[in-house]
Amino acid sequence: MLDRLRAIVGAGNVLAGADAASHSRDWTGSYTWSPLAVVRPGTTQEVAAVMRLAHEARVPVVPVGGNTGLVGGTKAPGQLMLSLERLNRIRALKPEARVVVAEAGVVLARLHDAAADHGLLLPLWFGARGSAMLGGALSTNAGGSNVLRYGSTRGLCLGLEVVLPDGRVLNLMQELHKDNSGYALKDLFIGAEGTLGLITAATMKLVPAPRAHATATLAAPSLAAALTLLNRLQEVTGGLVEAYEFMPGGYMDRLAQLRPDLGQPFAERHEVTILVELGATAPRDAEPRPDGAIPVVDLLEETLAAMMDEGAVLDAVVARTEAQRAAMWARREAAAELALTRGPLVDTDVCVPLDRVQDFLHRMPLRLAALDAGATDLTVAHLGDGNLHYTVFPSTATPELLDAIRSAIEDVVAELDGSFSAEHGIGLSKLASMRRRKDPLVLEMMQAVKSAFDPLNLMNPGKVLPQNPEETRP
Amino acid sequence: MLDRLRAIVGAGNVLAGADAASHSRDWTGSYTWSPLAVVRPGTTQEVAAVMRLAHEARVPVVPVGGNTGLVGGTKAPGQLMLSLERLNRIRALKPEARVVVAEAGVVLARLHDAAADHGLLLPLWFGARGSAMLGGALSTNAGGSNVLRYGSTRGLCLGLEVVLPDGRVLNLMQELHKDNSGYALKDLFIGAEGTLGLITAATMKLVPAPRAHATATLAAPSLAAALTLLNRLQEVTGGLVEAYEFMPGGYMDRLAQLRPDLGQPFAERHEVTILVELGATAPRDAEPRPDGAIPVVDLLEETLAAMMDEGAVLDAVVARTEAQRAAMWARREAAAELALTRGPLVDTDVCVPLDRVQDFLHRMPLRLAALDAGATDLTVAHLGDGNLHYTVFPSTATPELLDAIRSAIEDVVAELDGSFSAEHGIGLSKLASMRRRKDPLVLEMMQAVKSAFDPLNLMNPGKVLPQNPEETRP
């Protein structure tokens, strides 16, 4: 097998044994494994040849990009890992048509830079953008702060190139804004975490890059007030809100403890701290006035001032320099570090309807206290999407307690008509939730799709769809 | 069978024989048939019971809503038609969360009215909105003028309720903005034209209704100039363009001939006439100034004036009253009447990349002249999406010529990396195009999906996916 792989991609691009050590754990450290080998094809044709070979030999294939996932989606014990890192060409960037055609192994930050050269933005933006790759972002339908304004990764993708489990290349590449010729196959592969086929390239929409930002950190008396403010800002600006990030009091406390270097926005402690950012492209919003003032910044400041008069904002600071803006974002982007650097923990990524975020935060502490009086929690949220990253640190680490906590969170999410997985995906870590919470008929139809595309169950087997109880263990 | 249907929905809601006559042809008159019966369930449970019965009896089911489709998607010879007309409740409208939950049989115009009561808009807008129903719009992923700003029907839908071919109810209803728990089943049913299951209800996004419109008709020296103007308008307004509709000289000629009552925008004849509309929600754009001027109208006027100075606009008239705006839209919305009231014809609905629309219009007359020197054509386009409705009136109506013309159009579309079906769907009328033009591997995977959801081929059989040559005949 290894020899045949070497014949396809060259000896230097088949890593086994100690050479594959860097591909034997995930970013969080929760999952470790020993792959059969890591193969690094450099072209779609090489990917196809590798897949044909694996298909003939009935060897399971696990795709990997930047390996920044949070749900164990790249665990590959004894399986063949197919790394997309060498499939990293930007095939075309068309500024007039506002599209970029890129391969799966292109790091997001490189796409951001390439688009910025033309005054454009790929609005797929999250903490790991410096190492996450396009293919992984598509395979997980990755979210982030900008979904609020620009929609999901699925919505940003116009075309896909996919290698099927048997090595055939499915060409769904196009740059059309409308196409109703048959079923939405493209949307199936996006978010399938490599279980239906392997994404090798995509055509992505670009948007005009904001020419001015207005960024502020503010304190609100309640979440309800914060949501009123969001609606007001959208109304006043005509939908320019690019990010609306919620950091509760407990988050700010932990930040003060673990990252005192990042500072605190306010002298007083507040229960509801919000990072808001507007992005303006139009000259009437973005071009400095004769006195140097930026209209969109004034608009934000005026709206916050009016809301303070109404009591809906308690305090606010507007960024006046790029450094101030960066400092505000650093406090938000420390979230992964704050949450994941202390184990054991139960980390979740849930979504509830916008008007029920408060309910979630009211109900959880009561449930948690009943299970484990010593537990603490940490929340940070993309409030504009109803998407909460809620992490629990239990006082002991028995599998039973961890599972009971996860189940209690799922209970509350289900009561509020939410989803137990908003933007990180399922991988291995949420298989138990899929089994417990997903409608059995929905699971049955998903399994029917899986069988239609991958009848031999060779593509990232055991991920996304629950099969047996054992596979959920890290 | 009929008795058992009557037992489910009541005798008055099973139409057969002469009573079913109104359900025996499509809107265009191109397709006629005699259905086994028409059944009109009033609840999802009744739909499910009908589907279970049909499944047991192996009777094919064809769903029908407003029957405004253009591709023969409701033809049901000897088959059971399931009309959604009585499944017409608006289950909930939540202005704060900006969503509406409605059943498949709700007419779009009713949803528009209900949303308008709260200052909101369901941006799913096309000529047939007065009779088209939500279920049909979803099943065909219907397009329209507003896709440019607000995206596709698929993108506007947050949740779906579907009855599967065997009568089980698949609950994909939710109002979440992020959900990554498994495959995108919802997106599969949208645009599947009832071949995978039957949509009974949906949760749709609403957007703030524009509080001011700026509408103009303009003449441009070329399509390239028109596209430059579109980009300029998007830049200057920060993306407020709601519609950008192209009417060539030949379209305006035909309008003058057949609908002289609608008038002409300019004394001179122009090759490129554009209807543009901006929609503004923000007070800084929409609120009248002390002198009564509306800022967004001024912005449009100033931009058009600047472009006239540059020679990129030849003439323009800005609507000053709602009546003037309505008159401009009436000229555009006469398109279906202008195209379809004279047979025989080949009507198409194609999409090409934005920068290749001009290529399409250059190449087609040459190909057409070679096939039929006496043929004439008619074009109207959603230019901002690259979506052209291109209709040919051949001098004779032999099936061979009609087919050769359709094939020539497909040739040009394929040369330009376009799609032969942008927004109307496949139904029966584009099955031959699917067979000829769609990548066989893509067709194979679509068939695999069909078999996974509808193994007995009972749901709107023979539509969307080509099976044998006979079925493409009207």
UniProtKB/TrEMBL annotation, chains A, B:
Residues 31-209 form the FAD-binding PCMH-type domain. Its cofactor is FAD. Gene3D superfamilies: 3.30.465.10, 3.30.70.2190, 3.30.70.2740, Uridine Diphospho-n-acetylenolpyruvylglucosamine Reductase, domain 2, Vanillyl-alcohol Oxidase, Chain A, domain 4. GO terms for biological process: respiratory electron transport chain. Belongs to the FAD-binding oxidoreductase/transferase type 4 family. Keywords: FAD, Flavoprotein. InterPro entries: FAD-bd_oxidored_4_C, FAD-bd_PCMH, FAD-bd_PCMH-like_sf, FAD-bd_PCMH_sub1, FAD-bd_PCMH_sub2, FAD-linked_Oxase-like_C, FAD-oxidored/transferase_4, Oxid_FAD_bind_N. It comes from Gemmobacter megaterium. This is FAD/FMN-containing dehydrogenase. One of its GO terms (molecular function) is catalytic activity.
